[in-house]
Amino acid sequence: MERADAGAGGTQADGASVVRPARGTRGSYAKGQAKRQEIVDAALVVFGRHGFHSGSLREIAKRVNLTPAGLMHHFASKEELFTEVLRQRDARVQAAAGDVSEFTLLEQVRKVVAYNQTTRGLTSLYTVISAEATDTEHPAHEDFARRYAESAASASDVLADAQRDGLIRSDIDTAHAARLISAVMDGLQQQWLLDDSVDMTALFDEFVRGYLLDPRVDSGH
């Protein structure tokens, strides 16, 4: 195996030149990443309030003390910035849901509902953008259509397993139930954004007890 050691003169033993990072490169990279994250955080607020189309790069740039041209140094386009905002939003929600090996579907959904009630910015972003994305020309239209379809299919399969195990009612259509869970979550988020006294977690629990759970299992019989 070849040695990669550099000599005192900055060359390898065979005389090949070694490229050393310029002084300050690591610091510059860290600063660039920090500014990039600052831009994403600002964009989350702007897109969450105004949507994709009305949320302007100029306002985002102003919030982070950059010119629009300076912002474009970090993100080549509005679409690229928007994509990163959604990616980070999804990552945070996924982390809040926990590992599928540790929690049931309903436990994961409940954890997300509770998390959403602590993060108004993220909840507003999702609510505004999902409504905008019903427009077939919206840049997130295909993504949101796909995520709703995939989520419904996955949830339906998990609910079917729970139904076979006798954990939820046997007389419900699990495909319909999967869509209803999503609809209840979306509706509660919208109501909470309008009136923060709405207890999303308590209302979601009520929905689960009243619609999904087998009364015999829920009562411990």
Automatic annotation (TrEMBL):
PROSITE patterns tied to this protein? HTH_TETR_2
Gene3D superfamilies with a match to the protein in the record: Tetracycline Repressor, domain 2 (1.10.357.10)
Q: Which GO terms describe its molecular function?
A: DNA-binding transcription factor activity; transcription cis-regulatory region binding
Q: Where is the HTH tetR-type domain?
A: 33-93
Q: Supply the alphabetized keyword list.
A: DNA-binding, Repressor, Transcription, Transcription regulation
The UniProt annotation gives the DNA-binding region as 56-75
UniProt name for this protein? TetR family transcriptional regulator
Please give the organism: Agromyces bauzanensis
